[in-house]
Amino acid sequence: MSDDPNDLTSPIDEGVTAEDLGRTLFIGVGGVGMNGLTRLYATRGLDVTGSETKDWPSLPELERLGVTLHREHVPSNLDGIDTVVRSTAINDQHLEVVEARKRGIRVYHRSEALAAAMTGRRSIVVTGTHGKTTTTAIITQMLAHAGLDPSYVNGGENIGAHTGAHGDGEYFVAEADESDRSFLRFRPEIGIVTNIDVDHLNTYGDMDSLTEAFERFCRNTDKDGLLVLCADNPGTLALAKKLRAEGRTVATYGFADGADIQLGDVESSKDGVDYTVLYQNQVLGRFHLPMPGRHIALNSAAAIAVGLYVGLEPEDVAAGIAAFGGVKRRFEKRGEKDGYAVFDEYAYHPTAMTAAVTTLKEVAAPGKLIVVFQPYRVYRTIAMREDIAEALSLADKVVVMEIFGPGEDIPAGEGGQALLDAVNLPDADKVFVAEWDDVPAAVKALAGEGDVVVTMGAPPVQLMPDELLA
After folding, report:
1. Is there a domain that residue 8 lies in?
2. What whole-number distance in Å separates Cα of residue 16 and Cα of residue 125?
3. Which of 33, 101, 130, 180 makes a 20 to 30 Å CA pair with 365?
4. Which amino acid positions bind ATP, per UniProt (predicted)?
């Protein structure tokens, strides 16, 4: 492990396990990433405490699992603690981090604690610009359905399950975050890259540096293991060809001709998506996934590659995928009101937004699709304004909220109104709403019988469906 506490790329010391961390304090356990890891440690029977000042719906579940929760950040939270775990969002000046170092308590990044939990397991790590959470969830569900009882930590909450849990089986499935380079800590047996697209340039600077990081992740994967890369994405396809030429075992997947796991004959409906799967040009079977969308089927293809690699029969792979319950905030139907349905969707990057809007328009037909979008982060909204606007222009009607950028200032003329102005829809079908409390009235004015309304973006817009359905 590096001597630099902010180096998020070096592996943890070989052999370090979750048990070696001793009594552990997780800072900020309400957020999805830390919540899942805390759940994993708690369900593993370890001595876990957590600190969180915000009221998150996931907190009572942690207490039920025996996690001691501190509802304020104070020095006494460190009493009796052996290890503190923080995410990138918790900086060096955070009170508990400062106090831990003052007392000589080791401070781990979330990725280190996750890597420690993987020690001794056959690890499956999923990364990529889009589709990580759903792909991780499908793989986890497939292995669980086959009786393999995997451990897992995901970046979203599986419907009918959780963000993370300890399993007694040999496999460990995890979503890895590329945004801060921390995915470079892992040394998985199976490494999956769903795609490489423009994002996190505040960390990487340019696409070359971003692509190099994904290549490094692939090279960190066990040389005797498996790399699973999407054949439909130029970045991952080029990487697959390069690594395969060097003798690495690579499985490609997608709709593209030549993919090892190739999908075709796709039929999408409100009940999900059906598709034919070919494995090395031989028909594997007809599969059903109970979530709509070609891009969801694409995510499942990565899971199919994993299932075949670990020795599952094709019918067991298909059964596991058919049993998939979905992920919260991924095409999640939240309810109906006044004749229209309300969905919630996490997408905030233009590529993911395009896929989500396209699929939801199919679901809405013959009704209209109304997108309620909250832009996330000022710098990325300004940089990607035209691409985001192009994705929103695929909807029938749009409500744009003000940019959610904690700690950021919005330059004059660069806020949500500027994004709305770039959306190519008639003025009557698009509206900018600056205040949260005014959104329900704007939606009511646009939506009608048989329509679909989707709230879209990173938190906190996920709370808006409750307002719309009230």
Report:
1. no
2. 18
3. 130
4. 128-134
User: Could you give the CA distance from residue 285 to residue 387 in angstroms, rounded to a whole number?
Assistant: 37
Count CA atoms closer than 13 A to 230's CA, side-chain side.
Answer: 26
The overall pTM is greater than 0.90: no
HSE of 17, CA atoms in CB hemisphere, 13 A = 7
Q: Does 132 belong to an annotated binding site? A: yes
Q: Per the annotation, does 333 bind a ligand?
A: no
Helix axes 350-364, 385-392, angle to 10 degrees: 10
Pair (338, 449) in one structural domain: yes
State yes or no: 249 annotated in a binding site.
no
The reply to whether 155 sits in an annotated binding site is no
Residue 109's H or E segment, with its range, is: strand 106-109
**61 and 135 co-located in one domain:** no
Tell how strand 340-345 and strand 332-337 pair up: antiparallel
Q: How far apart are CA 100 and CA 52, in angstroms?
A: 17
Number of domains, the chain: 3
Name the amino acid, one letter, at 280. Answer: Q
Do 381 and 309 share a structural domain?
A: no
368 known ligand binder: no
Give the rounded distance of the alpha carbon of 297 from its chain centre.
16
CB 346 within 8 A of CB 337: no
For 260-279, the pLDDT digits (tens) are: 999 999 987 767 889 999 99
Please check if 129 is assigned to a binding site. Answer: yes
- Is 147 inside any structural domain? yes
Do the domain assignments include residue 152?
yes
Range of the domain at 380: 332-469
